[in-house]
Amino acid sequence: MLPDVLIENLGYLLRGAVMTVGLASATIVPSAVVGMVLALAKIFSGITLRTLVEVYLYVVRGVPLLVLLFFMYFALPYTGIDLPPLFGGVLVMSLYFGAFMAEIFRAAILSLPRAQWDAARSLGMRRWLIFRIVIYPQVFRLAAPPFVNTCVLLVKSTSLVSIIGLWELTLAGREVAERTFAPLQIFGGVALIYFALCYALSRYGLYLEERMRFAH
Amino acid sequence: MPQHWILARYLPVFLEGAIVTVELAVSAIAIVIIWGLVVAAARLSRWRSLALLAGGYIQLMRNTPLLVQIYFIYFGFAMAGFALSGFGSGLLALCLQNGAYAAEIYRGGLQSLSVKQIEGGRALGMTPWLTFRIVVLPQAVARVVPALGNQFVLILKDTSIVSAIAVGELTHVGKLLSERTAATYEIFFVLAAFYLIMTSIVTTLVRLYERRVWYLL
Predict the structure, then answer these.
(1) Does residue B72 sit at the A interface (CB-CB below 8 Å)?
(2) ipTM of this predicted complex?
């Protein structure tokens, strides 16, 4: 059913897909950490830190990921910070998606009733302790569906690092398409591989959403 | 040495790129508003096959990267004897992908309204059309516009990806200038500032609208 040219090169593309999955996994964890830290800073910190976080979120949300990747790749070396593309790509994507995760975590933290804080406070717990054993376990459950949906965007966005020359599924597709002169079949195949990855994630997000509706 | 003169000298070039970006974004947004409605109508249609087709389209578009869609259209269509310009390919990909997101926003806006409101309107003796016009539509619009506005910001940012097929928009201009002038730092700050200004305009408009319709949300 698949065109021959795609079947012949499927192994190569799948190796690219493994790289894409690796890139995405390497980005998801740090971006969640960045997001959580930013969310906490936005809710609990003083005016100075909060303003800094607001500025950071504003800039990162207003500038395209590709421009940030170019900045890391072309401009930073001029100041002597010469990051290897793989590390730099993961770093920029983590900082970028961290800004989106921050909003998700913030909404989840604020959606918990204030009474929980008050109750824990009246039991003599400190703020950090309340966060750790009362709030934090619920936040991840509440934030899970939008978190997974953002992860779908993240997997799709890993394709952008191919533009700065990082080898993953999209760049593998470009190489094969240029070699075989069959861009329609090859990019169709590449799109299908992405679809398989992202659709599975989307379904998981949907499942979490359903379960959430059942719990409430 | 800071090279401020570079900014003054190349500002017209940046502006040219910004115009292409705005052209791309505005045409994409205009088409997406309508195309999203069409897809949402198909998705909610009573014909099962049409609804399934629209559902499949939405899933396919939302779960594949824009860059791959752009390559598919730009390189693939040309090979199939149906060549599109870089601008046309980028625009088509932007519309196809964001039309799917817009359709889901429309659907969410309509379905977030309680059926009881429609029943209430009908019980007061209003015709279905009147109920839709004065009960459903104003609330649906008020709920849909902020979400659409966020999508427009994403469209604006996603136009940068079209630089990958050498369309002379803002990001492409910035990259070329940074290669030519070696004032990479300055160039990228200006580039980021241009995007920030453009996205801020859209965000501010959405905020103003939200403030005006708060009682409908």
Answers:
(1) yes
(2) 0.92
